[in-house]
Amino acid sequence: MVPLSWYMVLSMIVFAIGVFGFLARRNIIIMFMSIELMLNAVNINLIALSHYLQDLRGQILAFFVIAVAAAEAAIGLAIIIALFRNKATAHVDEIKEMQG
Prior knowledge:
The chain is 78% helix and 0% strand. It has helices spanning 4-24, 28-53, 57-87.
């Protein structure tokens, strides 16, 4: 049986990769993928702790996180496609239409 700490370390590594990808890259597609990595790291933690504590609430919450991630990806990709059709770029620094 795999100990709980290994899942925590895996989740921490995946979350760190997501944070680094979000902060270091300027391509909006890679930034979205980094957000998905961070959400998946949270799901690993939720499911591992749920299994460790023998409680289903963590797994149910992971389903909600997956649903929110799917909605975020659908809306985000629609916005990216609309911006790409107008500006033909995916770099965040060159997109100024959504600034306040």
